[in-house]
Design goal:
By secondary structure, the chain is mainly beta. α4 (290-301) packs parallel to α6. Mean pLDDT is 84; it is low at 1-39 and 616-634. This is Carbohydrate binding module xylan-binding domain-containing protein. InterPro entries: CBM60_xylan-bd.
Length: 722
């Protein structure tokens, strides 16, 4: 039988909903959501994907429930996912082919053509020697240092510390190793971590703390079935449905021992969504353990997807590495059991599940009123880097905003290192302090090279307040413009003069009749008409909302090819964001697709906008220094002279923290025509010269530097040739 929650009530609700706008409808859904809670912002590495993602959408009031008729399994277990969160201090390793499914996953030698950041001490055991089974799926996600970019896959291995990192052979093909943005992605497009279904490895995985009550479990989960028993296969329904994009390769092979079941319920396949009906309570099926109650609530409010084959009579819950150990430590419950209370409770939960027959792209979770409030917005996390060293290596340092200590570090090393903090800075904070404390003599002092917040660097020697710098004149501590803190004290970094933000748009029109406006979110801050056909600065000063990571410069009123808007850069306070560094330009003409909308262009040909990512991801020039680019605190690239005049060649000065770096250098005209391409290596070619005759005419040219280790994040610079 198929049942729907609150059938009579839903008929009234549907009639009422027809009379009100969709925006109000969403508000009503949130207000009326059962068990509504006050939710904070979220961190994408902990709670990923859009709020309407399949992994975040609650079950809806219009969901159709059909009894799945699952039976007790002989075994309940864990399928471990490796979620590897990296930072800028992690080394870069070459990706090596893992040639076997069984033991020997770390025996390959073929380079797969890409590199990854990876923690030096991290080990992921070989098959046959793994605490997670003889042939673990070893699905993984590597979250890059920006906290938003992720690489998913299966069968990862790393058999010794600081050793090679091994991946499935199929990842040698670029389409199989595309990275995703876990803030913007819906959890369906481009994901591929679950090998059988190409569904996400990150989405739906039970995370550390979620079964022990340390963190709430507020998302859909994943459980592996015995597909040969439960998953249907036929020519019409080939073992999977949306959001899965495939099933196991052997699903339709009747001679294979794990072939799917042609007699199984056609609604039960890989990608099917299941949930516990709304009228059931934990005590109704005798769920007593705390982890069991947490799973019950998640299965009722959000549901569960089939994404992999357990390949025997088992129910395997997909969880992050370490979940099994923390549950055993807190509750003395083994999540991998052939007997006992946990096996009994998981079997009870599975028998209570119903398949949601109307889950679809247009009705995720079945549609209607969600059982829970939707996932909150993402935090605007600021990334703070303090580059510092100690005189003795025993100095202590802390980061302070207002009177709040955000983070402490002890025994700061004697050579310059980066010290990181990631979190929310108050929007109205105008100053940040780096404090040296615990001083006990002249053999100790803290030297702070700079403070970096997101894309803006604040040099210590430019700050007028340093309460710990020794002043020879007064024979006391406390003076200005020094990077050294000799006594207990702090350097105060002034972020801005007021809470007002100053914005400058440097732009010109092709005809002088173009219109432009500045937007934050959907709010228009200012409009300008008849933009001059030579570069001018256009100004706005005001308070920007705290929760906006992007600013848009929009061209509107386009009426033909004689009109274009060219935006040189956007400047917010002291930080410059070059238009050609931005990956979203909805109005730039794309010759390949013959439509408007592409990346890395300062020209807006059609009605559209350039989106400037003002936090975390955009590359910027800071402190009015147009020539110096800092890339991940690893490289300095200087162009000189700029402008480039007749009779001079263009010099490139490259400084890297590590040897054996290689860059591809390409030069383009503003129309996109490539006129030069070469490679340079460090330290062999620390100084590099491009002859003046390479530049075919006067004007502005684009120079693209691509680090071979980081091909997806090129650095773009402009050179003015006169």
């Amino acid at each position: 039988m198929i049942i729907t929650q609150n059938m009579g009530l839903n008929l009234l609700i549907r009639k009422f909903y027809l009379l009100i706008p969709f925006s109000i409808l969403l508000s009503i859904e949130n207000i009326n959501a059962q068990n509504q809670e006050q939710l904070d912002f979220r961190d994408p590495s902990e709670w990923p994907f859009t709020k309407h993602s399949i992994w975040n959408m609650p079950i809806g009031s219009d969901a159709n429930y059909k009894d799945a008729k699952f039976q007790n399994a002989r075994y309940v277990g864990i399928d471990t996912q490796h979620i590897i969160i990296t930072n800028n201090n992690d080394p870069i390793y070459k990706a090596i082919d893992s040639p076997t499914w069984g033991p020997g996953r770390c025996s390959g030698s073929e380079y797969l053509g890409f590199d990854v950041p990876f923690p030096k001490e991290k080990i992921i055991h070989d098959a046959g020697n793994s605490p997670y089974g003889n042939t673990p799926n070893a699905n993984f996600v590597i979250i890059y240092p920006d906290g938003e970019t992720a690489l998913e896959g299966s069968k990862i291995a790393r058999c010794k510390k600081n050793g090679k990192v091994y991946f499935s052979t199929f990842m040698k093909y670029p389409n199989n190793r595309k990275r995703i943005n876990i803030k913007k992605n819906d959890g369906v497009k481009g994901v591929r971590g679950q090998g059988a279904t190409k569904m996400s490895a990150l989405g739906g995985t039970i995370r550390l703390g979620e079964l022990t009550g340390k963190k709430p479990l507020r998302h859909v989960i994943k459980i592996n079935p015995w597909a040969a028993k439960y998953c249907h296969y036929s020519s019409k329904i080939p073992g999977y449905k949306w959001p899965a994009t495939k099933a196991d390769n052997y699903a339709g092979n009747s001679s294979h021992p794990q072939a799917y079941n042609k007699k199984a319920d056609p609604d039960i396949v890989m990608g099917s969504l299941f949930a516990i009906p709304p009228n059931l309570k934990p005590q109704d099926i005798n769920i007593k353990t705390e982890p069991g109650k947490i799973l019950f609530k998640a299965l009722q409010d959000y549901g569960m997807y089939f994404t992999e084959n357990a390949a025997w009579d088992a129910w395997n819950i997909i969880a992050e590495e370490g979940v099994q150990e923390e549950v055993e430590h807190k509750y003395n419950i083994d999540l991998a059991s052939t007997n006992g209370i946990w096996k009994d409770e998981v079997n009870k939960l599975m028998r209570a599940l119903h398949v949601i027959t109307n889950n679809s792209p247009n009705s995720i979770g079945g549609g209607g009123i969600p059982r829970r409030t939707l996932a909150p917005d993402f935090k605007n996390l600021s990334k703070v880097i303090i580059r510092a060293k100690g005189k003795s290596g025993k100095e202590n340092m802390r980061l302070i905003v207002g009177d709040k200590v955000l983070k402490k570090w002890i025994n700061v090393k004697k050579s310059y290192k980066n010290y990181f903090y990631k979190g929310v800075l108050p929007c109205n904070s105008n100053t940040v302090k780096v404090e040296y404390y615990g001083d006990d003599g002249p053999h100790k002092e803290l030297i702070v090279d700079y403070l970096k917040i997101d894309n803006t660097i604040f040099q210590s020697e430019k700050m007028e307040i340093n309460t710990g710098a020794w002043d020879n004149d007064s024979r006391t501590c406390g003076k200005s413009y020094s990077e050294k803190i000799h006594c207990n004290g702090f350097i105060e970094y002034k972020l801005r003069d007021t809470n007002f933000t100053s914005i400058t748009i440097r732009a010109k029109g092709k005809s002088g009749k173009e219109n432009m406006r500045l937007l934050v979110g959907d709010r228009v801050l200012k409009k300008w008409t008849n933009i001059k056909n030579s570069y001018n600065n256009y100004f706005y000063k005001g308070v920007l909302p705290c929760n906006n990571n992007t600013v848009k410069v929009e061209y509107y009123g386009d009426d033909g090819p004689q009109n274009d808007l060219i935006v040189d850069y956007l400047k917010i306070d002291n930080t410059i964001f070059q238009s050609e560094n931005m990956d979203t330009n909805t109005g730039a003409w794309d010759n390949d697709s013959r439509t408007c909308g592409k990346s890395y262009s300062e020209i807006i040909h059609c009605n559209g906008y350039i989106e400037f990512k003002t936090i975390n991801k955009a590359k910027s020039d800071t402190d009015n220094d147009f020539d110096l680019i800092r890339l991940q605190d690893e490289y300095d690239i200087k162009l000189f002279p700029n402008p480039l005049y007749e009779g001079n060649d263009l010099g490139i000065n490259l400084v890297c923290n590590e040897d054996n770096e290689a860059f591809k250098v390409e030069i383009f005209t503003l129309s996109g025509k490539k006129i030069f391409s070469s490679k340079l290596k460090y330290p062999q070619e620390e100084k590099y010269v491009i002859p003046r005759h390479v530049f075919s005419s006067e004007g502005i040219f684009i120079i693209k530097f691509t680090n071979i280790k980081n091909v997806e994040k090129p650095i773009i610079k402009k050179i003015l040739v006169k």
